[in-house]
Design a protein that fits this description.
Strand content: 15-25%
Structural class: alpha+beta
CATH architecture of the largest domain: 3-Layer(aba) Sandwich
Number of strands: 14
Number of helices: 11
Number of domains: 3
CATH topology of the largest domain: Rossmann fold
Order of helices and strands: EHEEHEHHHHEEEHEEEEHEEHHEH
CATH class of the largest domain: Alpha Beta
Largest sheet: 6 strands, antiparallel
Helix content: 25-40%
Radius of gyration: 20 Å
Distance between the termini: 34 Å
């Protein structure tokens, strides 16, 4: 059992970090809830220690993270922010030296999952079905089949994602979208696979249809079983070298039933609580793997036909400024003074 462990969770202002914090508390863990914004909703959850970190990619992120770990002494770290992964991969040794366990993919995996052009190249080389993908300089010679999607090469969360119907639109959007790629637009039933890849490489896969999506987050989902989709998800995870908790997105095309894989995120998905509701002990078994205990795959089976609806709720009310903001700023100042 891993109850009583101190877990640092980053990105608690987003759905994955917020829900992960709640699940860890239910399992008896003590959570240090971290985010780049003092207004993040997860900092206000009862029982957490609120903590501020610089945004992912900021030059001081690594230094401040190590300061926080030295001050608060977490037993382990779980990141729910893709942009943090390159820095975290380089900090593993220093975090381990502070007694902080991590379960992170290798740097090559982080690069492959974060770069849609590299992801396409890896999957294509393994003959895994994925949307046709082009860079702007390839437009003139590409065999384009409309409609297309223009999106950032390293973006996430459906930011700067635009459909287009003509080559002229594609050219204009490539000038407006930061570091763009051009992708075939896939139609069909969109799905997410909540996954856990243990330290032997064995992958558990919990499939759910994305029935209603807002700003990239699945707000209504339903679990299902599909042997072919499970197989392609497992092959994708092996191809990119995934490790630990992660998620895969794709489509099952209407008419043909063809499975197409669109992305892998090396973190818990935003609607992962559906996996738990359907019977898979995803967070519990992730903790086992994090602390290098065997993952029990019999605890990762699930029931099809279970649904989830996510909505809005009031997390906290009171007089301004909230105590969690004051506490987070105080801890940030204390951490800065440790080095």
């Amino acid at each position: 059992m891993n109850s009583g462990k101190r877990i640092l969770v980053t990105g608690v202002g987003g759905a994955p970090g917020f829900d992960l914090t709640r699940h860890l508390i239910k399992l008896g863990c003590y959570v240090i809830a971290a985010d780049a914004s003092p207004l993040a909703c997860g900092l206000a959850l009862p029982g957490v220690t609120p903590c501020l970190l610089p945004p992912a990619g900021h030059r001081s992120f690594g230094t401040r993270l190590l300061q926080v770990c030295q001050t608060l002494g977490p037993d382990a770290l779980l990141s729910t922010v893709e942009g943090e992964l390159p820095a975290l991969a380089g900090l593993r040794a220093e975090l381990a030296g502070l007694g902080v366990r991590t379960w992170l993919p290798e740097p090559d995996t982080v690069e492959t999952c974060g770069d849609k052009a590299a992801f396409h190249a890896v999957l294509t080389a393994r003959e895994i079905p994925t949307p046709a993908t082009f860079l702007p300089h390839e437009l003139a010679d590409a065999d384009l089949r409309f409609p297309l999607i223009i999106k950032p090469r390293r973006g996430y969360g459906s930011k700067h994602v635009h459909p287009c119907e003509t080559a002229a639109q594609a050219g204009t959007l490539c000038e407006l979208v930061p570091d763009p790629i051009i992708q075939e637009r896939i139609s069909g039933q969109e799905f997410t696979a909540d996954c856990l890849v243990d330290r032997t490489g064995r992958a558990a896969v919990i499939l759910r249809h994305r029935l209603l999506v807002k700003a990239g987050l699945s707000v209504v989902s339903r679990t299902f079983h599909h042997e072919e989709a499970t197989t392609w998800v497992q092959r994708t995870l092996a191809a990119v070298g995934a490790a630990g908790p992660c998620c895969v997105q794709g489509f099952i095309q209407h008419g043909t039933g063809r499975v197409v894989i669109t992305e892998v995120n090396a973190r818990f998905a935003g609607a992962f609580p559906l996996a738990e509701a359907a019977g898979a002990r995803l967070v519990q078994q992730s903790l086992h793997g994090l602390f290098e205990q065997p993952v029990d795959h019999t605890q990762l089976t699930y029931t099809a036909g279970v649904y989830l609806t996510k909505g809005f709720e009031t997390v906290a009310t009171g007089t301004w400024p909230p105590s969690h903001i004051l506490q987070a700023h105080h801890l940030a100042a204390a951490a800065e003074g440790t080095r």
